Amino acid sequence: MLFRTKYLLGIMATVFGLLYLLFGIVGLGSQVATRADQWMPFVLGIVHVALGGLLFWTSSRERHAEQARLVRLLRMVLRECPSLSAREFADLAGISPADAQEFLLWASRRQRTVVVVGSGSSLRVWSSHSLN
Length: 132
Prior knowledge:
mainly alpha, 3-stranded antiparallel sheet, rod-shaped
């Protein structure tokens, strides 16, 4: 779940970049500063915004890859056994139980073949073909 850290770092880098750009706009009116001093905040701002965008992009790609991995794992497990608890899924996937609950709720909204029963620590997912 490193993509969440990258996402937060991307937000911080982008905010600092926007602050640098703001300082650059304010500094353009200064008569005392040299030309390099006037343009340095713009350069730093552009670099920070670009790095923030890169972190957002890589975070998004990692999140989609992780979601695809979890979807494949859920399909594979539900083919073998009709029911699965969030704790069991967390152990199989190597993620925290809270992340497993969040993913299983997301999967039940996105896929018709997944039915979630219960909430919190008693969350259990069923394959819809096993309920017929």
